[in-house]
Amino acid sequence: MPVSTTTTTTTTTPLSSPSRAPRLRQQQHGRSGRAPAARLALAALPLVLLAACGGGGGDDEQPVTPPPGTGYTVGGTVAGLGEGRNLVLQVQGADDLTVAANGSFVMGRRFERFTTAVVTVASHPEGQRCSVAQPTQLVREANMTDVSVRCENLPAGTRNLSGVVTGLVPRSPLVLQNNQGDNLTVKADGRFFFNTPVASGAAYAVQVQTQPAGQTCSVANASGTVGSGSDVRSVQVTCTGVPQAAPEGSWAAEYCFQGFDLTTREYLNIVRQGDSRAIVTQGSVTKLFAFCPGPASDALVGQPAESVVLDRQETRGSVTAFWGTQTNSTGNRAVVWARKGPYLCLLPRKTSNQPAPVKDYPTIASVEQDTDEAIQAKACYVKSPS
């Protein structure tokens, strides 16, 4: 059945994906005189946004900028790693670095100054657990060497229980359990470790406690008995997509523009009216002298309505696409709404304040490619707390 929607926006530009810069009229917003609207909650403040504060040095000091394309390295030291064992570290959840001996290490990725690097343990050594002290590094004007990794042997008679997750959509948490407890939240593909070591000779049984949004995950090699000579590393979790319904509720743009004295984030609020119709409000929230995350302090304002009728739906893998026609004062325009995991992407997306380009999506495969690119560019929306 066709799904018709009515869209209200804060601008007269066509309904599209989040803009990468605030509009001039939003910069002129004050703290009063705005239309009343429900406050919208945002995510917790990441350290990366503190980079704008800078620090160190007097007013007459000039920053030392590395040559273009080089940047600064992030590293530190490893201690306690057992002989003949390997530890795998990551930075920003990627760029694996295998460490085979105690001493200094340097991650492979380089960072520009005033950016944040986060070092984590991707895989623990056999029979050990490693922790990272000072994992978050604000890169300033030199190579960073402050990350400290300490490895310790597991308690006598216990082993690690771990496995690998594949197919999980980012930002779509999966919750696993062992023996109906020891809940573990997994947020990305890769190796996972249950928090509690398992006694040698004891049984284990891994199951999915909470499925990720828009996906179903299954567990292979889920149960067995822990041996005395090695960790359990054979659990396999595979996630696949399931068809998703037309979106509804409040959605926040993942990208938030941060200017010198304001931040701007775009929102969608979709209210379904029966099986085939919805009211959609698209607008922006601007906050003065504030970082992007945190509760919204300014109102969401709406302007003239646009109408969208969705008349085709397909699912492939983890992507469900909705084709339709958008109608406003300038005429009709083909649009595609794509859902993948927790994301809602409006295609074709715009990359600045310019209207989105005209593009045809004849197949679900063409939607998949642009959806993945939009998610990587932080040009999609995610469900916003009510």
From TrEMBL:
Residues 22-32 have a biased composition (Basic residues). Residues 1-36 are annotated as: Disordered. Residues 1-13 have a biased composition (Low complexity). This is Uncharacterized protein. It comes from Acidovorax soli.
